[in-house]
Specification:
This protein has 330 residues and is mainly beta. It has one domain (3-328): 6 Propeller (Neuraminidase), CATH 2.120.10. The protein contains 1 helix and 24 strands. The protein has a 4-stranded antiparallel β-sheet with strand order 1-24-23-22, with no helix packed on it. Strands 2-3-4-5 form a 4-stranded antiparallel β-sheet, with no helix packed on it. A 4-stranded antiparallel β-sheet has the order 6-7-8-9, with no helix packed on it.
């Protein structure tokens, strides 16, 4: 083998070793004493402010907190104003192209309508998550026994077209008129993430990929399992072209580790045999963790998750942890 080839091989090996050996900072505790449907959501604004929401206990209270220093410190969690008088199942946060944040959450019907289950309400912030507009609602399911739930950020196709990955339907919503229309070929993707890559490709958590705005789809195999428990897992598209999907490893409710699975070719293939470790407490994780990740900047990812193990230092809690994108190097 030529010397240049040996050097190139050594550089590739060393880069991979360095990337995997990057020590992650300790998780930052945001909340203590959590239980039930905690299911956090996370967004980052154009100015770099992190906004997070979660439930501290079953259905309520629904709390919001913010960080202006990359997640090192967080504001004291406060009640989200529009859910004080309602029972809530946690939803999602989406940052729009113009910098506003859309918070969508799931509302239980009133006791008299309990049989109708849940529908989705949303509110918009134009000031880094400090104040929020009066809530509006997406259309409620026509069948009272069908749940309409959101858990993932939606895709802003245009300012007047939001691609909604709802449990009961996959539609395009016009926030200006409140009207919905079928998306692409009309198929229902269910409660799984849908992302748009840096190249404009749509990738669905169902293991599907579309380069023509959803009119046709190709199957991708193997593909990370983010659909079996679609409300639990995540998938995000980074600005550098990579895609990340969460992977919970091990038995039990929460498994033993949280990993990331990477795609480097616009969602065509996934590195199933080369997971990137993110969280390993050397014990069973309490609860389903429900990690949610955002790209803070070109060098840093930030993830919110929860762990209900009461025996860990400080007890059960909601946590935030950063990870350098360098760790994703092949």
């Amino acid at each position: 083998m030529k010397a240049t080839s040996l050097i190139a091989t050594w550089i590739c090996w060393a880069s991979a070793a360095i990337a995997q050996e990057v020590t992650l900072p300790a998780p930052v505790r945001i909340e203590t004493g959590v239980s039930g449907h905690i299911h956090p959501a996370l967004a980052v604004t154009k100015k770099g402010t992190l906004v997070a929401v979660y439930c501290k206990s079953e259905y309520k209270p629904y709390l919001i907190t913010r960080s202006s220093d990359g997640g090192k410190t967080w504001s004291r969690p406060a009640l989200f104003p529009h859910t004080v008088k309602t029972q809530v199942y946690p939803g999602s946060l989406t940052t729009l192209a113009d910098g506003r944040i859309v918070h969508a959450w799931n509302v239980w019907f009133s006791p008299k309508e309990r049989a109708r289950s849940r529908y989705v309400a949303y509110s918009i912030s134009s000031d880094e998550g400090v104040t929020w507009s009066e809530p509006k609602s997406f259309a409620k399911a026509s069948d009272p026994k069908v749940e309409s739930v959101i858990r993932h950020p939606f895709v802003e196709l245009t300012p007047s077209a939001w691609l909604l990955p709802l449990m009961d339907r996959t539609v395009v919503y016009n926030p200006e008129t409140g009207e919905e229309r079928p998306f692409g070929d009309g198929r229902k993707h269910g409660l799984t993430p849908i992302v748009r890559t840096a190249q404009g490709t749509l990738v669905s958590g169902k293991g599907l990929r579309s380069t023509d705005a959803g009119k046709t789809w190709e199957n991708v195999k193997p593909f990370p399992d983010v659909s079996t428990q679609g409300w639990r897992h995540q998938m995000i598209a980074l600005k550098n072209g990579m895609l990340l999907a969460s992977q919970i490893v091990g038995p039990g409710t929460g498994g033993l580790r949280i990993n990331f699975i990477v795609s480097r070719d616009d969602g065509r293939t996934w590195e199933m045999k080369a997971p990137i470790e993110f969280y390993d407490p050397s014990r069973a994780i309490g609860g389903r963790a429900c990690p949610r990740t955002v790209e803070i900047d070109a060098k840093t990812l930030g993830t919110i998750f929860y762990d209900t193990d009461a025996k860990q230092a400080g007890g059960s809690g909601v946590f935030f942890r950063t990870m350098p994108t360098m760790r994703l190097r092949k």
